[in-house]
Amino acid sequence: MKQFYGVDLPNPLMLGTAQYPSPAILEQAFRASGAGVATVSLRREGAGGTGQAFWQMIADLDVLILPNTAGCHTVKEAVTTAHMAQEVFGTKWIKLEVIGHTDSLQPDVFALVEAARILTEDGFEVFPYTTEDLIVAERLLEAGCEVLMPWGAPIGSGRGLNNTYGLRAMRAEFSDIPLVVDAGIGLPSHAAAAMEMGYDAVLLNTAVARAGDPVAMAQAMMGAVNAGRMAHQADPIEARDMAEASTPVIGKAFLS
Amino acid sequence: MTVWSVIGAGVAGLAVASELVERGAEVQVFDPAGPPGPHGCSWWAGGMLAPWCEFENAEEPVLRLGQQAIDWWAARTPVQRHGTLVVANRRDLPDLRRFGRRTEGFREVGAEIADLEPDLHGFSKGLLFEDEAHLDPRRALQDLYNALQDKGVTFHKRLAPTQLRNAIDCRGLHAREFLHDLRGVKGEMLVIRCPDVTLTRPVRLLHPRMPLYIVPRGDGIYMLGATMIEAEDSSRITARSMLELLSAAYALNPAFGEAEVLEIGVDLRPAFPDNLPRIRRLGHTIYANGLYRHGYLLAPALARGVADLALNNTHSEMVDEDRA
Asked: Which residue of A26, B40, B101, B175 has the fewest CB atoms within a 10 Å radius of its CB?
């Protein structure tokens, strides 16, 4: 598995920490699934570090913390939020989100590239939430990003991988870069599909937090990402149009 | 005879005091802030008695224990039994389907919405939870307070003495130095006046991030609530929260755009990690806390649990620790 800014992840599942029925269920979802990275939204849950009790619970999970800039619409907001996150969590990692469109929450890729450049210069290790656009991806790498996080579908939509062609192209184009499908995952099959394509990790939140049984769904997602990764490493067969019998037919006494 | 000292005159303290007095115990109440008022977070509550709706995003005890609340309150304060109407904007209809899958005790309504709430516009589908109810929280607190005074309960407007025996600590977040797993969850609400709109029952507008609701308080006054933010700063409402609350009202009926904003409420709900209330006896003090967003819904069950422990030494399911 590729390293994320020099860090080995214990497994390919990154889980968000918003929208769970309670912190207790959040904790159980992490413990039961073994997810190794927790994303946290500073902006939504108390700017300025006022959510101490909640942050302490997240810290006690003993997983890698990836703060995000969810809810930011401008470069300035995102940069400020990233700096606040660094103070609260003491990490250089930042999942950079700069929202451009209110209804689809599609990233504003122009502002994203600029914010990524500024934050990299400030010493951050940026995980940019982007689209599958190859040129944008190129610009993000030029800006100093060493990880890319293309969307599967709009945040919270649960639609899965909307553009598998685009995601495959991205994987092929940036074969050495750690790639994470971030957002839009609704089902374990979506997560598995991303891993089968050779993605390095999957980041999701709503699909687990808003499931009827978040703990079971977190475990299902972990099963899926592991299955998908093993399948990718096992070099799957090519699909074909006609049947190919798995047992030889020539030489059998009777052919029907 | 043992005198029980209830500390804190919010919904938890007053409900506990009422339950104890009604079972024949002698009670006094301490609260340095005096009678119920804006200093307590239950002052800012919605007052929905909605166990079936709340179960969508809560653990099973909320559904079961919450059902005791309607009759408990109806015996002590006016309760409106008109049910709850849950609606969603067209783009959020998947959320309405999910809400229906996760809950019970409702029937689906379509064209009937226009008969139930003629002032709701543009909603083709909804869920009606007929057995739910709502009350006016401030009236309810005052009614409990008055009834306790009538029964001879003394209210001390000062801090409770330390080393008090037979104390019942109902101070919400102020008790966190003794309850280390208690946290504050920020809630923001508005009270608006809009005589142009008439709603009969609480209406919930499903929203991907928070359950927004509007509760009619009579005379064209409505309570709009409530955000749930994992933060422990209760100083101010944010512009984002205010926009979301007002947008919800506007989505229900654009005439709410003309409403006057009467009050902005911001406070912290006391909550344990599973968002369920707890009763704990540590030494001479019983702690009753963690009502979270279910102050009026679960205070009756909490009060019964405290009285069972204090008077009969029986342990209800809310008791999670007893080191008397």
From this structure: B101
